[in-house]
Amino acid sequence: MAGAFVVIALMLVLTYYASRWYARRMNAAPGSGRYIKFCDRVAAGQGSSLAIIQVGEQYYLLGISDKNMQLICELPGFTPQEEGPQAPPSFGRMFSDLLRKNRDSGVEDETQGAVDE
Predict the structure, then answer these.
(1) Burial grade of 117 (CB within 10 A; 0-12, 13-18, 19 or more)
(2) Are the C-beta atoms of 74 and 81 separated by less than 8 Å?
(3) Crossing angle, helix 91-116 and helix 2-27, to 10 degrees?
(4) CB of 39 within 8 A of CB of 52?
């Protein structure tokens, strides 16, 4: 029985680290190099997206599809915001919050039952 718990715990830990590695790999913008940097990319439909790239000090808006890439416009005076949308919480953070919530709700249920009696 203890061996099964160890195997499950090991699988959870390996899954956690594999998902972190995969997320980092997928978030890395393909094509970012020494002189060109993808600043942001948003899906605009199936197989198409809009991207802001930085070349030197200039920023450009590109339309990207499965078949081609097209310059939409130059973004003069564009400065990326330092504070963007909050990144989603990590799996570890979500799991510990869930455990804390369940632990706290269990304590409330026990005290509530004692008061009702």
Answers:
(1) exposed
(2) no
(3) 130
(4) yes
Distance CA 51, CA 38 (A): 7
CA distance 14 to 9: 9
This prediction's pTM: 0.46
Q: For 63-111, what is each residue's pLDDT tens digit?
A: 999 889 899 999 888 887 766 566 677 788 888 888 888 887 765 544 4
Q: Which residue has the tokens 């039952």?
A: 113
DSSP reduced 3-state for 90: coil
Structure tokens at 30: 């393909």
Q: H helices within the chain, ranges in order?
A: 2-27, 91-116
Dihedral-angle region of residue 100 (phi above 0 means left; psi in -120 to 50 means alpha; beta otherwise): alpha
Cα distance between residue 18 and residue 24, in whole Å: 10
